[in-house]
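Hi everyone, sorry if this is the wrong subforum. Our group has a chain we'd like a structural model of before ordering constructs, and none of us has done structure prediction before. Sequence below.
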Amino acid sequence: MITTKCYFFGREIPRDAFWAKYGWIFAFPFLLIGFILAIKPDWLVKLQIWWLKLFGAKFEPGKLISKIYRAIGIGWIILGLGFLFLALYYNLR
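Answer:
Right subforum, don't worry. Here is the predicted structure as tokens:
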């Protein structure tokens, strides 16, 4: 059996205690960013255009950029759900 060690602020804590206590901290940002990217990818495109205008550059996004951001968002949602599953698994065990 493979065992892992988790360190939090320099202290070694058991893996199940770590995921039971801090797993939702990892899940929440991944789910939030993933849902924003999956539902409204145009927000990130507008942010990118605005940011590049500050530097005087002209950027015209392609037709696939929204689909790419949406796919990245779905990947982040899957990671967030995985972290949430670990947190719930070790809490309910």
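For your construct planning: The mean pLDDT is 87. The radius of gyration is 18 Å.
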